[in-house]
Amino acid sequence: EKGGYPDFMLKEICEQPRVVRDTLVGRLAPTGELDIDELGLSFEELNLIDRVYVIACGTSYHAGLIAKNLIEGWARIPCEVEAASEFRYRNPIITPTTLVVAVSQSGETADTLAAIRDARIKGGKVFGITNVVGSPVARESDGVIYTKANKEIAVASTKSFIGQIVSLSLLSLLLAQAKGKLKTGQVKMLFHELGDTAAQIQHILDTQGPAIHEAALACKDAASALFVGRGMGTAISYEGALKLKEVSYLHAEAYAAGEMKHGPIALIDPGFPVIAVATKSPTYDKVVSNLKECEARGATIIALATEGDEDIAKIAGHIISIPPVRDCFSAITASVPLQLLAREVALMRGCNVDQPRNLAKSVTVE
Ligand code: F6R
């Protein structure tokens, strides 16, 4: 059942190139129009959307943080991302032109369902993004995009997270097209680059094992670790920290790198692991200067860097290389080595990577 892999977590991480390809199959018509019929809203209706909330829990919430960058960046629609457990107990502003996007792998998370029900009562349109056909989230939403991850068995989400990011990227492109913010040619180009991430993930899987193993050795005995980045890198850091803590029980926190000097830098002492998303992006130089400050205090820096970046080697003790990719798609590639890092650290610490303590695969009670 594990297909020759030692655990489901690794099997599912290795399936991610396929998930990207399957989630995109048949989505772009030759005319350049995106084909997402299941959304159930016309272009005209999409054009009226003036506010988006992404609601979700855990890893799915992190996919939402990534989507915020895409929805605001491409479609120029204000977007908020909120934990479903918070959203359901306040009084969010929802009108008939509000789109609520509920992201849930299992499609049965109690808080996410409650938030959907609340949003619909208030008159909002609800789209579900789920991995389970016919699940409550799918049934109770106005429209749905299915991620094509197939069944995910390991408790920690990996391949469904990648499927969620790809689906949310499609939704963001569709909104941008409906709003007239991206031209057909741009949508086509971005769609193809989104598809290219399948091969880029494969390349990371094929080449970065030894570097990730070394990085895991460098942080496995730490009491705590910090993940930092900026922009997309911040969202990637949140997910990296969650993955590490849930499977290895090593305490980890994520911070926007620019926030370091407002408090967390006090944590840094010699050997403290700082895992940085330092791939080439509009804020690369800023991230590098934050890392220099950590290095000066003796931190052990593990950097996710763009292939061929030689400057970063002067600061970071460990480098995990990522193929060059447009910033908007960097979460798809950069998240993969962080999943592998979490797994390696967990195995080194004797943890069961498929079944971490205290966690359930779906959280159907509050
Ligand atoms: C972490 C993880 C959880 C889930 C969360 C939401 O690896 O799997 O944080 O992401 O419980 O679950 P779904 O997406 O099923 O609503």
From TrEMBL:
GO cellular component terms listed in the entry, alphabetical order: cytosol
Q: Give the UniProt keywords, A-Z.
A: Aminotransferase, Cytoplasm, Glutamine amidotransferase, Repeat, Transferase
Q: Where is the SIS domain?
A: 42-181, 215-356
Q: What is its EC number?
A: 2.6.1.16
Catalyses: D-fructose 6-phosphate + L-glutamine = D-glucosamine 6-phosphate + L-glutamate
Residues the record marks as active site = 361 (for fru-6p isomerization activity)
Q: What is its main location?
A: cytoplasm
Its top-level enzyme class, in one word, is: transferase
According to the UniProt entry, its GO molecular function terms are:
carbohydrate derivative binding; glutamine-fructose-6-phosphate transaminase (isomerizing) activity
Q: Which GO terms describe its biological process?
A: amino sugar biosynthetic process; carbohydrate metabolic process; fructose 6-phosphate metabolic process; protein N-linked glycosylation; UDP-N-acetylglucosamine metabolic process
Record carries keyword Flavoprotein: no
Q: Where in the cell is it found?
A: Cytoplasm
Q: What does this protein do?
A: Catalyzes the first step in hexosamine metabolism, converting fructose-6P into glucosamine-6P using glutamine as a nitrogen source.
How does the annotation summarize its subunit structure? Answer: Homodimer.
What name appears for this protein in its UniProt entry? Glutamine--fructose-6-phosphate aminotransferase [isomerizing]
Look up and give the organism this protein is from: Collinsella acetigenes
This chain is encoded by the gene named glmS
Q: Which residues of the full protein are shown?
A: 250 to 615 of 615
